[in-house]
Design brief:
about 180 residues, alpha+beta, 5-stranded antiparallel beta sheet, 3-stranded antiparallel beta sheet, 4 helices, elongated
Length: about 180
C-alpha cells in the first residue's frame, strides 16, 4: 500500500496486488464481501487511522488566541495538546513532562457554563493560579473561576476578550511553575 499526502492535505492511496502487479480496488467498492476483501479493507482503514492519529494535529481550536497559545507552549515547553476525552474531543490539556501534572486546559464550552447568559460556544483556557492571587483576579469579565476545575487553584480566561496574549502567556508560565506538586 502506498499513501500519498500532498502539502494541501489531499490523500490518495494505492494497493498493488502482489500476485498480479496491478492495483487492487475491491476494498473501495460498496457491496463487495468476502473474508479477503474484508481483511484488506480493515487493514486499509486501520493504516489510514494510524496515519491520522500520528501525523495530523486536530484542528479543533480556531481562534487566533488559541493558535498563538498553542504555538507559544510548543516553542517554550515543547508540549503538545493532549486530547483525553472521547466524549469531549474539542477539549485538551497540557501537562508537564517531569511531573505529569496538568498546567493548562484548552476547552470549547458554552458561555452559559461560565455563568454568562448566552449559549454561544467559546474557547477558554484554564490555568493554575496561586490561591492568594485568585480573589483579586476574578472579575467575571476577563477572568472567571476555573471552569470544571478546583476554583481555589484555577482560573478561566475566555479567549475572545481583551486579555493580551502576552499576559496569558505569562500566566501559562506561572501555571507551569505551579504544576509541581
Amino acid at each position: 500500500m502506498t499513501v500519498t499526502i500532498t502539502l494541501e492535505g489531499a490523500v490518495s492511496t494505492e494497493i498493488i496486488d502482489p500476485a498480479f502487479g496491478e492495483p487492487y480496488i475491491l476494498h473501495l467498492a460498496d457491496g463487495v464481501s468476502g473474508s479477503f476483501v474484508g481483511e484488506v479493507k480493515s487493514q486499509y482503514e486501520e493504516t489510514l487511522r494510524d496515519i491520522v492519529d500520528k501525523c495530523f494535529e486536530p484542528n479543533v481550536f480556531k481562534s487566533v488566541y488559541a493558535k498563538k497559545l498553542i504555538e507559544y507552549v510548543r516553542n517554550t515547553y515543547g508540549d503538545e495538546l493532549e486530547f483525553l476525552w472521547q466524549r469531549s474531543p474539542e477539549n485538551a490539556i497540557w501537562r508537564r513532562k517531569d511531573t505529569g501534572k496538568w498546567y493548562s486546559a484548552l476547552l470549547t464550552v458554552s458561555k452559559r457554563k461560565l455563568g454568562i447568559g448566552s449559549d454561544e460556544v467559546v474557547e477558554i483556557i484554564d490555568l493554575r493560579i496561586k490561591p492568594e492571587e485568585l480573589e483579586a483576579l476574578i472579575d467575571n469579565k476577563k477572568y472567571y473561576p476555573g471552569y470544571h476545575m478546583n476554583k481555589k487553584h484555577w482560573c478561566t480566561i475566555i479567549l475572545d476578550v481583551p486579555v493580551p496574549v502576552e499576559e496569558i502567556c505569562r500566566r501559562i508560565d506561572e501555571s507551569y511553575l505551579l504544576a509541581v506538586k
